[in-house]
Amino acid sequence: MRIVHTPDSSRHDPERYMRRGAPIPHPEQAARYAILRDAAVRGGHDLAEPADHGLDPIRAVHDPDYVAFLAEAWARRDAIPGIGDEILTGAFARPQMHRKPAGLLGRLGLYTADTSTPIRAGTWAAVYGSAQCAVAAADAALAAGHAYALCRPPGHHAYADSAGGFCFLNNSAIAAERMRAATGGPVAILDIDVHHGNGTQGIFYARADVLTVSVHADPSDYFPFFAGYADETGAGAGAGFNRNLPLPPGSGDAPWLEAVEAGLALIAAHRPRALVVALGLDAAADDPIGALAVSRGASSGRRSGSPGPGCPRRWSKRAATSARPCRTTSRPSSPPSTPRARPNAAGAQKVPSARCPVQGAQCKVRSEAAQ
Ligand SMILES: [Zn+2]
Fold first, then answer.
1. Ligand 1 centre and the CA of 193: distance in Å?
2. For residue 12, which of 180, 196, 168 has the smallest C-alpha distance?
3. Average confidence score pLDDT of the chain
4. In the chain, what percentage of residues exceed pLDDT 70?
């Protein structure tokens, strides 16, 4: 399989992270890139570095001002007296605060959700390179049937205009939009990371041409907390085109496989021309997080259905984002119905959070209603 990677991924090297009130070594370490790359080499795959497709594919899903901020922040660091080897703030904009400050720290608080995404000397090179891997893998998948993007830093917690959860640019969304534009759509994203893909949901929440499906741990007491509930199903033209399948912590193999099967059935009903799999591996029992306790056997097990002709019939345990086109030709006229999905009951009964997953005006309406 073509695996697209870049050594620039290791240039983002955060050192510290606050977890439950205590500083720990940052979990999203630069070494992740080399570990995944070396595994791909051992697997005999076809490794390639991406061409530079510029900012246009990134701006296709991200706010241009946010992208410019990420690109320029490190060069502006001298504006902060006493700045060290990373730019980080502890002051973040709440939904009730709408002003756009000019200063670097204020702008950082506007564009980030937490303290997991410090900006360092090599951060932009890494996140830009990771996004280019997604673009190149999308193109490779359209040409060859499948491809794998080794994306580090990761991306699925990044909204159109904000970083968070170790993520800066949403690689899955960039790949999906790339393939939607190339094929005429529709396309789908299946996110099986143990954490809800809140940024991906936010980017496509009001769109019918990108179905987003996420299987993850119930966010009622788990990151990202403020999105990922089963009743978040899309808005406006996107109503019915976002599906969350939250599972109780420690669910194990059977509920996880059932949720993935349900997600695939939803995707099959959508008849996508391409599929992006956001392939976080932290649902695995032997992952340091392992919150859903999924065994290696389950994560590589054969499933009974197929999302569409030409799509793979076997799940393999790979990291990062995989782009897989499906040779389907027609577009659904209505949102896919839920065939066998049995999301966590508590999640299904959750009312919308004050922090609405939708960016923009519709988000404000729902946020105010929730308050
Ligand atoms: Zn995760």
1. 5
2. 168
3. 84
4. 80
Give me the residues paired with residue 243 across strands.
Answer: 213
Tens digit of each residue's pLDDT (9 = 90 or more) over 271-285: 999 999 999 999 999
Q: H/E element holding 278?
A: strand 274-279
Residues 45, 38: Cα–Cα separation, whole Å: 10
Alpha-carbon distance of 340 to 246, in angstroms, equals 14
Give the whole-angstrom CA distance, residue 150 versus residue 5: 5
Average pLDDT over residues 348-359: 26
How far away, in angstroms, is 184 Cα from ligand 1 center?
Answer: 30
The C-alpha atoms of residue 128 and residue 70 are separated, in whole angstroms, by: 9
Rounded distance, CA 249 to CA 321, Å? 24
Per-residue pLDDT tens for 123-151? Answer: 999 999 999 999 999 999 999 999 999 99
- Number of folded domains in the chain? 1
Domain of 7? 2-370
Maximum distance among all Cα pairs of the chain, rounded to whole angstroms: 59
Residue from 5, 62, 146, 157 carrying the catalytic annotation:
157
Look up the CATH number of the domain holding residue 53.
3.40.800.20
What CA–CA distance (Å, rounded) separates 370 from 141? 41
What ipTM, to 2 d.p.?
1.00
In 3D, which of 148, 150, 116, 137 has the Cα closest to residue 7?
A: 150
| CA 102 to ligand 1 centroid distance, Å | 32
| Separation of CA 283 and ligand 1 centre (Å) | 8
Cα dihedral sign, 144-146-150-154 = positive
What would the two tokens of residue 144 be?
């060859």
Lowest-pLDDT choice from 71-75, 130-134, 214-218, 305-309: 305-309
Helix (H) / strand (E) containing 132? helix 123-144
157 flagged as catalytic: yes
Q: pLDDT of 85-99, one tens digit each?
A: 999 999 999 989 989
Closest Cα to residue 159, out of 63, 268, 295?
63
DSSP-derived 3-state class of residue 211: strand
Question: What is the amino acid identity at position 353?
Answer: S
336: confidence class by pLDDT, cuts 50, 70, 90 = low
